[in-house]
Design brief:
The chain is α+β, with helices and mostly antiparallel strands. About 35% of the residues lie in helices and about 25% in strands. It binds one RNA strand of 76 nucleotides through helix 1, strand 1, strand 2, strand 3 and helix 4.
Amino acid sequence: MGQTLIEQRVQKLADIRDMGIAPYPYRFETTHHSADIAARFDALSASEEQVRMAGRLIVTRGHGKAAFADLRDAKGRFQIYVRLDIAGDEAFALWQLLDIGDFIGVAGPVFKTRTGHITVQVRELALLSKAIRPLPVPKEEIRGGERVIHDQFSDKELRYRRRYLDLALNPDVQAAFRKRSATVSAMREFLDARGFLEVETPVLQPLYGGASARPFVTHHRVLDMPLYLRISDELYLKRLIVGGLERVYEIGKNFRNEGIDRTHNPEFSMLELYQAYADYSDMMTIAEELYVFVAEKVNGATTLEYQGQKIDLTPPWPRISMLDAIEKYSDIDVARASDAELEAACKRFGSDIKPSVERGVLINALFEACVEPKLIQPTLIIDYPRAVSPLAKGHRSEATLTERFEIFIHGWEMGNAFSELNDPLDQRRRFAHQKTLRDRGDEEAQVLDEDYLRAMEHGMPPTGGLGIGVDRMVMLLANAPSIRDVILFPHMRPQESRDADG
RNA sequence: GGGCGCGUAGCUCAGGAGGUAGAGCAACGGCCUUUUAAGCCGUGGGUCGCAGGUUCGAAUCCUGCCGCGCUCACCA
């Protein structure tokens, strides 16, 4: 089953060895990439300088005693021309044993063909790695200036499971991950310039906290104790604020044992930053500036198009209180509505609320149902109910609210920030309340972290904190429809390989 | 977890009123020393996701399972 294709290539491998050629050599010195020879063609062809280039063979066009072929390297693709009388008998014999997918190196001068195509004339040919499994390279043509790809490697399951093929065959995929890298670099550049210290806090935690979510549990063998993969790094970063670091951030993975869909992967990346002596208003400014800085670094623009929708990141973003937002989008005056009316409104907007939840939970549910999907342009929703914000400081003028905001873009929650709760007695009461929720069966209620409280009891300065979902930010910047398009190896159910042989 | 859809050659896809499979590309053989979805001639390649059932006969109809996608619910 499909074995003959591999057997044929293994035979070629043996033939190559019989020629005295090592099919897996150790290195190859290169002088140029694909983009370079196009950019410097005039100088290269005038000087008859020989270039040394390497890449993966993706197309061959044979002409008897000569052949054209395209190689792909990290910067694009380039054409080579192999001619028997120029490359020599041995190189040409090797050439005839090569396959699409092999890595090869070439050396020779650069010239233009009759049709004007910049091409490397092969004087020296080196096999750098023989591929024994076929590479399903699609065909490409240029039609009317547009690149048209035929039979593109497109099966999503295969693309995600065999990302190496996706990357090798679909150049746009590489581009998305380059944007991801640029995004994270820009975040660091932005924060480092503002005096933030990058830190690393535990991923394996004896207690999980900092967010409302179900955790993954593992077990430490020697200590014989359960450990949790963090759902957030928030409580550790705030301990560092207690320690006097003043400005810290971490970019890292969180793990949440929840559903998987287009915007959720079990492990995902968060940027969290904390700044002493700041409040949530400062975080609003940082959030806007950070977004703009990153967008300009990554895309060179502060506007973008996401899945056909124009989005303008230019600050300032509208700041609307949650209650005002609900009133605006639903005509419900939350301040005057009874709990029963709120519950009815939730149901009307399709949110099925568990009976007898707290008023703040109802308000939040109503907000999520009737407002969230409408927040396409960047919007800061501010002043969340206490009930859904156990780590946020009470609002300076509204007793039932906290100083918390979330960033919404394209109807998605893109960030979350507070004036951090630093009153240890209040924090203890909030944890106690979470415990009663947990005892009533709310598996996502937060767990009391006594050591965190102890830290806070030693004194924590007023602090602003901000968390931003990295994956979703990259989705926006790269116009990626699914979180799986911005995570190199997204979570997939394991599937037994049907051809388990190598 | 629910609903809808999909799973056929290495890849991209046809077929599907039930009669044991086709194309293009890739591969293999032949011709070809400036092509570019190179071209021309020829050849090989499939337990039609898995397991049952109906039937003389199943890729096709039915059931279950597995995987993927979209979507709803929970969550970032």
